[in-house]
Amino acid sequence: MNFCEATAHRINQLLTERKMTMYRLEIESGIPHGSMDYIINQRNKNITLKSIALIAKGFNMSLIEFLDAPVFIDAFKDAE
């Protein structure tokens, strides 16, 4: 799993856990629908740290909290 796939997985996981809609995340994060759609559907192959920070903000969590998930450990191992 690459980093973009891991990010999409983490977003979907948090949306489910928090019973939150994609629309609410887009509003809270300030990321436009088209951009979020690219991230979720893994068409964006170079997600930026700024985008991830905005997504974390949308979930009302820190960047570290967002990235502190097993899915990212696997993504970082695959990058080596």
What is the 3D shape? globular
How would you sum up the major sheet?
none
Enumerate how many helices there are, as a single number: 6
Name the beta content range.
Answer: under 5%
Pairing-aware structural class of the strands and helices?
A: mainly alpha
Q: Name the CATH superfamily classification.
A: lambda repressor-like DNA-binding domains
Question: Can you put this structure into words, describing what you see?
Answer:
The chain has 80 residues and is mainly α. The protein is built from six helices and no strands. The chain has helices spanning 3-17, 22-29, 33-40, 49-58, 63-67, 70-79.
Key features?
80 residues, mainly alpha, 6 helices, globular
Write the layout of secondary structure elements.
Layout: H1 3-17, H2 22-29, H3 33-40, H4 49-58, H5 63-67, H6 70-79
Helix pairs in contact: 1-6, 2-4
Give a quick precis of the structure.
This protein is mainly α.
